[in-house]
Amino acid sequence: MRVLKINRLFAFILVPLLVSAYDSIGQIRYFRTPTIALKPDTTLAFIAASQDSIANDTLFQIRSKEGYPMAYFRKIRTSVCFDNKCRLLKVNLYWTSTGRYLGFDLPKGEFLSKAEHKPFTPAEYERMSELLADPLSLLATLSYAELAPQVKPPDKGSEVDGVTSATAKNVLEYVVEGAAYTTYKMWHVVYGSTQEDVARLTEKSLSPGFIQTVLESPDLTDKIWALNHIRGFIKLTPALQNALLGFISPTDYNQAERAIQAFGAGDLQANTIQQALFTKFREANYALKKLIINKFKEAPMLDKQVKKAFAEDLTLLNSELISNVLDLFRKHKVADVDTCRMIAQLLTNRNDLIAQKAFTYLNATQSMMR
Amino acid sequence: MERRSALVTLGAMSLGAASPKLETGEILKEPYKLTKQTLKADILVIGGGTAGVVAAIQAGRAGRKTILVENGSQLGGTTTTGGVAFPGIFFAWGKQIISGIGWEMVQEAVALNDDTLPNFSIPHGKNHPKHQVRLNGQLYAMLLEEKCVQAGVQIRFYETPTQITFQKNNWVVETVGKGTMTQITCNQLIDCTGNAYATSIAGFDVLRESVTQPGTLMFKLGGYDFSSLDVKLIQARYQEAIQKGELVKTDFRNNIIGLLRSAGDNIQHVMGADSTTSETHTVANIKGRASLLQTLRFLRTLPGCEKTKLIDMQNETAVRETYRIDGHYKITQADYVTGKLFDDSVSYSYYPIDVHDENGVVPDHLAEGIVPTVPLRALIPKNSRNFLVAGRCVSSDRLANSALRVQASCMGMGQAAGAAAVLANMQNKTPLDVSMSDLRKLLEEHGGIVPGTSSKG
Fold first, then answer.
1. Is the bond preceding A234 in cis, omega lying within 30 degrees of 0?
2. Of A323, A333, B290, B437, which is most buried, counting CB atoms within 10 Å of its CB?
3. Is residue A315 within 8 Å of residue B24, measured between CB atoms?
């Protein structure tokens, strides 16, 4: 993707755009509440890498004064066609830095219309913005031709915009009535190839500070996005390590799972991280306990306190978790007398499977010690 | 030739004919004799599908000697052999409601295949498949097998029961398989056949609808670009073929566009599909394959679809509904849609009411916050002792069953049945007499989520 230009002027225009949701200078605009607390500073223009039917291929990136990508927009000029009749759609679409829909505005004097040129009401603009914000919309799987019912109504005009066709009943819930094709087209631009361009551009600007900011977003998708962009992208800072530990809680499995995944082998060199992670192990539910035990397998070496704590907990765990801990010990070649003594307590467990696993482990330690 | 020497020569010739000439490395084996084996177990699970694997692992991990009998060649049932490798749904309204052994295996399959989980924190709205976890079915089958072996479960593939009798507080189960005839004596029996087959052989009542839901042969198509197809023209050609009797309307829900959009997957309907016996399952398999072949030939006549290819197809038709047990409690639709909590609720279930019929399926979603539950009594046939079921043959009315039958719910039931059998075996009781506090404790120790006092997630 090529940087075309830097235009600070945009920043001054965009500041009000991102904080207000409606027209103040004769322009129609609808925005979702921004979830990442940054102020716009500069705007960069890129040639969008993706190929689509949109005439203007420039993707604008809005940056904060820290240099963090905070939003994107694209000036859409595309045709909405049905039955060989077309109408030009002019709209500017906005994305968050994590690729979510942020809002839209229309060039001065432009408006969206339904059948027979009837302009959108404010409620319909609001609805359009709501529909565009739904990534799970049925529009994702429908083809353009399926928006209309099987039987076509008589042709009433020469222009379309949801326009010359009635809307199929099953899609009414997902479109602005009378503007099905416009809704469809806009939704597919929002969730089309530009989203990937946005992701690629943001990934080029990742930093611990930016990730920290996105993690603080109230939006759950933003949080998961940030958690997915740590390992392999940036180096953890102490602040981020703490933030990750905070996400490891049984209250939200996805966030906890992603946070555990975000710790790399290098991070686990620190005894403090290992010990903090073990504290999380004790608080975790079954599904997370297994993930945490497996995470310790990535550590270059097992912290002594953590090893001792795991050994002490053995008699409290079920057979599967005991098996997992013994696998962890095997990975780190744990064969010291104190740990083995605690493992030996399992030999008399009334669950034969547990006793057998302990016996197998202790038997193997003989060869480990040779 | 002298008479005596001629006889000697003939004798040598016949001996030569009876004993083939052996090449180097070959040995002559005696004819195979089918000999009956006798095995003993604390717990026998019949059916190694979605629920059965979890039940067996639970029993094995709790230290019980466990045998798992499966009539196919791999574990996992509809998830693996049936190809419905999206065993949702484990989360409801932002909270995990089914965990334990089933979730553990799903989690490991996802990690080992570098797949990503849906964001369960965000409600799926009316698009519940968004919360389905897509798995690599074959990888999942291998993981299940490994987990069973690690739990000490003895797996017996290719076997099916022929007789089940209750003798001296134990079940005696006769099975046959490829070159095997086995008598397994067990203290507790869990029917996870999905068809209540073991229940029926054991002599307990089973129920069935006069018309059952269709099955599905899962497959994958390729070789065309959906976005460039003339949908209207294809739809018209499809209707024409149905009118002419070249295609059957119900085979693809009267929706050729849906088939092309999804490129196969969970779209075909095999009316009356029943996997209970070899004969009924043979019919379901032949019907599914014949309909796919016919439709594939038709697709290749359509503009833009001339190069349509069959990329993959499962080995058998997966089945949604056959028999249900007549249990101590029958879960009703009203119970399900109101999320009724029972004193003996042992697992959660979460899915829309989802009855497939000849017209397709229109899921009826649960109201916000509703999470249905399964009572232990619904897993126990009336008049039985030492006997449990788990999976889609759970005692329920048809509408409740259309939601309870999905895999995650079956996994929850499987773990509950396994744990109840463990306690019944250890305490020398029948499962109905096991105390709920003991059952809850054991299930939670093994990661299960039990409705009631135990919190979700």
1. no
2. A323
3. no
Number of domains, chain A: 2
Do both A224 and A84 map to the same domain? Answer: no
* Closest-CA residue to B345 (of B376, B378, B387, B381): B376
CATH code for the domain in which residue B359 is found? 3.50.50.60
CA distance B77 to chain A (A): 23
Inter-chain CB proximity A320 and B122 less than 8 Å: no
CATH for A340: 1.25.10.10
Among A146, A285, A318, select the one facing B257 at the smallest CB separation.
A146
Are A62 and A154 found together in one domain?
yes
Looking at A162, A177, A196, the residue that finishes a domain is: A196
Q: What is the pLDDT of residues A117-170, one digit of tens each?
A: 788 999 999 999 999 999 988 898 888 777 776 544 444 443 333 333 445 667
Q: Are residues B332 and B276 in the same domain?
A: no
- Rounded distance between C-alpha atoms, residue A70 and residue B381, angstroms: 60
Contact (CB, 8 A) for B260 and B226: yes
- Whether A141 sits inside 8 A of B119 (CB atoms) is no
Residue with tokens 């030999």: A347
Handedness of CA B65, B69, B73, B76 (dihedral sign): negative
Contact yes or no for B160/B171 (Cβ under 8 A) = no
Do A188 and A99 reside in the same domain of the chain? yes
Strands of the B309-313 sheet, one edge to the other: B264-265, B219-222, B309-313
Question: Measured between alpha carbons, how far is B287 from B292 in angstroms, rounded to an integer?
Answer: 9
Q: What was the ipTM of the complex prediction?
A: 0.87
